[in-house]
Design goal:
255 residues; Aminopeptidase; disordered N terminus; 7-stranded mixed β-sheet; cytoplasm; N-acetyltransferase activity; single chain
Length: 255
């Protein structure tokens, strides 16, 4: 290592330059539940917090709730670089049961290590969790996304309708919550019906009587059905939103 006088630039000699971490092989990756590998909880928490910062204690508590009874957290693991080292956590996904849909699962979160994105690990994670769910008797997966529609569409996912994930399998939420699922305002301005009481009777006149006026149209409502029968979402826009008010797209796939 050499340090030039009067300079803050640090230069590593070629013989001492650190080696790049080898990229894991897709064929060697495995998918395992977090609760089956408690020694990897810290590494999994670090990977998730890299994308969604949160207190470490809260993240570890959330991961600690994983169980075969759902919600269930999965880790995409790379084999150990050395016999003494632990496997590398490449990705993470969280699955939960769906209200009133016993054969469906909701994919709550999907994340891949930032340094490994764009190399096929996201696809491998999704394919692995689909096999995992199918092997346990589930037939459909649901998920939401803000900006990854094309990625999921390439994996066979299509636009779907909102569903309610169950935080705990012993706690069922009212089905009315689904019907009241928040939706972004319609791009069309709300219709304002004219006031009937403000109208005055026309003056009497000679000649044939005029036909009665047509009935007033009903005002638009805020139901999940879009005005004029249009779908509530397309690949370009959506009328659904998350709890923060950001637009989201609901997608689903039969497995």
């Amino acid at each position: 290592m050499t340090l030039s006088p009067g300079s803050t630039e640090l230069t590593l000699e070629p013989a001492h330059q650190p080696e790049e971490t080898p990229v894991p092989s897709l064929a060697e990756l495995t998918l395992e539940p977090v609760h089956c590998r408690p020694e990897l909880l810290d590494a999994c928490a670090d990977l998730i917090n890299e994308q969604w910062p949160r207190s470490r204690a809260s993240r570890l508590h959330s991961l600690g709730q994983s169980s075969d009874a759902f919600p269930l957290c999965l880790m995409l693991l790379s084999p150990r670089p050395t016999p003494e080292a632990a496997p590398i956590v490449v990705g993470h996904a969280r699955l939960s049961r769906v209200l009133d849909r016993p054969q469906s699962l909701l994919v709550e979160t999907v994340v891949v290590a930032r340094a490994l994105r764009g190399r096929g690990f996201g696809r491998r994670l999704m394919e692995g969790l689909e096999d995992f769910a199918q092997a346990r008797g589930f037939r459909r997966l649901h998920l939401t996304t803000h900006d990854q529609l094309q990625f999921y569409a390439h994996l066979g996912y299509q636009l779907g309708e909102p569903v309610q994930g169950l935080v705990f399998t012993s706690r069922r939420l009212s089905a009315t919550l689904l019907r009241a699922f928040p939706r972004a305002p319609s791009p069309r301005p709300p219709y304002k019906a004219p006031s009937v009481t403000a109208q005055t009777a026309p003056r009497a006149h000679k000649g044939p009587s005029l036909p009665p006026p047509p009935p007033l149209p009903e005002p638009l409502t805020s139901s999940l059905t879009s005005p004029a029968g249009l779908p509530p979402q397309s690949l370009l826009e959506t009328q659904y939103q998350d709890l923060r008010g950001c637009p989201i797209f609901w997608m689903e796939k039969d497995i």
